[in-house]
C-alpha cells in the first residue's frame, strides 16, 4: 500500500517507528483532518485573535485573525481603533469575476475572427451546463482571445458568485477546451487553468485627523514613509509585508487561499514595472489619507469552508450572513490598519518596544508552567523593559529565591 493510501493512524505509526516524536491527537480529529488533506499525520494549531472594532462603510465588525505573532493582532487593533475614531473606512469592490486561461496550438487554416463569432454561443453553452453556478448568481461573463504566432491565448472571465471559484473555473475551462479543440484550425489544447492574475479588486480609504495619531508632525512622517515606499523597493516590500500580516491572518481564519492572494498581490505591486508599496499615504489638506487596493479572489462558501469547524467559528465571529464582497472589504481594511500601525511605530518609537513586550509572553511560557510565576515574571520584564531570555532566567531565579 502506498503511504497516501494508509489510514492516518498507520501513517503516524510509520513515522513513530522511525523515532519521530509526534504530538497527541484525538482520533476523531485525526479522521476529520484526514478527510480534508493528504498524507495527514497530525495537526498544526494557530491562535485565533480578534479585531475588536473595525468599522467598514459605517458597519462595525469583530474580525477573526489566525496568526502566531501577537504584534500582528495588536497592530490590527491599534489601526482599527484609529480608524474608528475617524469614522471608519470606506470600501468599494469591483467583483466581476476571476480569470481563466486556455492556451491552444493553431495552424495556418485558423481564423481568429471566425472563432470570436462563436464566443457568445460558447458562453451560453457553458452557462447551460453549469446551471448551479448560474442559479447562485455567477457564470461565464466573457471570453476574449489573442493570437501570437501559432498560439491562441483565451481569457475567460468567470463570476464565481459567493465562492472563490478555483475548482468551478477549472471545470469550466476544461469543458470549454474540449469544445474548442473541435474547432477548425485548432490542433491541440496546451493547458486550461485559472489564472491568479489580480481580479476581484477591493479598495479601502481612510481620512485621518492628525490629532488622533499624535499630531501633524506624525501624520507628515507617515505620508513621507508612504512616499518612500512608492519609490524604494527595499522599503516597499517591507511595507507590503506589514499589509499582508493583516490580510493573511484573516484569510487563514476564514479558510481562504492566501497563496493565491499573495501571488496576485505581487503582480499588483509591480504593475508599472517597478515594485512599489500597495498602500498610499498622503497629506490632503490637513488630513492624512490612506488608500489600499488588493486583489481579493476569496469566498464565503466552497473549498473546505463548510467542512471546517474552526473556520465556521470565524464566520460566526464575522456574522453568518456575510457576503464575499463584505469579507473582501473587511480583509483589506484590516490590512490597511496593520499598515498604519506599522508606519506609526516605525516613524516614531520603532517597532521593537511594542514587539518585544508582546514576545515576552512566549519567553515566559517557555520558562515556567506555574501561572503565578508567569505573571510575576512578565510584570518584572515589562517594568525593567528587558525582554531577553537570559535576563528572564535571572529574574525567575530571583522570584523563586524570594518565595
Ligand atoms: C513586521 O511584521 C511588519 C513591519 O516590518 C511592516 C513595516 O515595516 O511597515 C513592521
Tell me the major beta sheet.
4 strands, antiparallel
Helix and strand run:
HHEEHEEHHEEHEEHHHEEHHHHH
Which percent range describes the beta-strand content? 15-25%
The CATH superfamily of the largest domain is identified as: 3-hydroxy-3-methylglutaryl-coenzyme A Reductase, Chain A, domain 2
Q: What are the low-pLDDT stretches, counting only 5+ consecutive residues below 50? A: none
Number of helices: 14
The small-molecule ligands in this entry are:
(R)-mevalonate
Q: According to CATH, what is the class of the largest domain?
A: Alpha Beta
How would you briefly describe this protein structure?
By secondary structure, the chain is an alpha+beta fold. 50% of the residues lie in helices and 21% in strands.
State the main characteristics.
4-stranded antiparallel beta sheet; alpha+beta; globular; 50% helix; 403 residues; binds (R)-mevalonate; Alpha-Beta Plaits; 10 strands; 3-hydroxy-3-methylglutaryl-coenzyme A Reductase, Chain A, domain 2; 14 helices; 4 domains
Q: Which SSEs are present, and which pair or pack?
A:
Elements: H1 8-17, H2 27-36, E1 48-56, E2 59-66, H3 70-85, E3 90-94, E4 98-106, H4 112-129, H5 131-135, E5 139-148, E6 151-159, H6 166-181, E7 186-195, E8 201-208, H7 216-231, H8 233-253, H9 258-269, E9 279-284, E10 287-295, H10 309-318, H11 324-347, H12 352-367, H13 371-384, H14 389-402
Antiparallel strand pairs: 1-2, 3-8, 4-6, 4-7, 5-6, 8-10, 9-10
The chain binds (R)-mevalonate.
Amino acid at each position: 500500500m502506498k503511504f497516501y493510501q494508509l489510514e492516518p493512524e498507520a501513517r503516524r505509526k510509520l513515522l513513530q517507528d522511525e523515532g519521530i516524536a509526534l504530538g497527541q491527537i484525538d482520533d476523531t480529529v485525526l479522521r476529520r483532518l484526514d478527510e480534508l488533506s493528504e498524507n495527514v499525520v497530525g495537526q498544526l494549531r494557530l491562535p485565533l485573535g480578534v479585531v475588536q472594532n473595525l468599522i467598514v462603510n459605517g458597519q462595525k465588525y469583530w474580525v477573526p485573525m489566525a496568526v502566531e505573532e501577537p504584534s500582528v493582532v495588536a497592530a490590527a487593533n491599534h489601526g482599527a481603533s484609529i480608524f474608528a475614531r475617524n469614522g471608519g473606512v470606506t470600501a468599494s469592490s469591483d467583483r466581476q469575476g476571476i480569470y481563466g486561461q486556455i492556451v491552444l496550438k493553431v495552424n495556418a487554416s485558423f481564423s481568429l475572427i471566425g472563432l470570436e463569432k462563436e464566443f457568445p454561443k460558447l458562453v451560453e453553452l457553458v452557462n447551460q451546463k453549469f446551471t448551479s453556478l448560474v442559479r447562485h448568481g455567477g457564470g461565464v461573463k466573457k471570453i476574449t482571445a489573442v493570437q501570437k504566432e501559432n498560439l491562441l491565448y483565451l481569457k475567460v472571465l468567470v463570476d464565481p458568485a459567493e465562492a472563490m471559484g478555483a475548482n468551478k473555473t477549472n471545470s469550466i475551462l476544461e469543458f470549454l477546451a474540449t469544445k474548442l479543440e473541435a474547432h477548425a484550425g485548432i490542433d491541440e489544447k496546451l493547458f486550461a487553468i485559472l489564472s491568479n492574475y489580480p481580479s476581484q479588486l477591493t479598495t479601502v480609504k481612510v481620512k485621518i485627523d492628525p490629532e488622533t495619531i499624535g499630531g501633524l508632525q506624525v501624520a507628515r512622517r507617515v505620508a513621507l514613509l508612504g512616499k518612500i515606499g512608492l519609490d524604494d523597493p527595499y522599503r516597499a516590500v517591507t511595507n507590503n509585508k506589514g499589509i499582508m500580516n493583516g490580510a493573511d491572518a484573516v484569510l487563514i481564519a476564514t479558510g481562504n487561499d492566501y497563496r493565491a492572494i499573495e501571488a496576485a498581490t505581487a503582480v499588483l505591486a509591480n504593475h508599472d514595472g517597478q515594485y512599489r508599496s500597495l498602500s498610499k499615504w498622503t497629506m490632503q489638506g490637513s488630513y492624512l489619507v490612506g488608500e489600499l487596493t488588493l486583489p481579493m479572489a476569496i469566498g464565503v462558501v466552497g473549498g473546505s469552508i463548510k467542512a471546517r469547524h474552526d473556520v465556521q467559528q470565524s464566520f460566526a465571529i464575522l456574522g453568518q450572513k456575510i457576503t464575499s464582497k463584505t469579507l473582501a472589504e473587511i480583509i483589506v481594511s484590516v490590512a490597511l490598519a496593520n499598515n498604519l500601525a506599522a508606519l506609526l511605530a516605525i516613524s516614531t518609537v520603532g517597532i521593537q518596544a511594542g514587539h518585544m513586550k508582546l514576545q515576552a509572553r512566549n519567553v515566559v511560557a517557555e520558562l515556567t508552567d506555574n501561572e503565578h510565576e508567569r505573571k510575576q515574571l512578565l510584570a518584572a520584564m515589562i517594568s525593567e523593559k528587558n525582554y531577553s531570555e537570559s535576563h528572564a532566567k535571572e529574574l525567575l531565579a530571583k522570584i523563586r529565591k524570594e518565595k
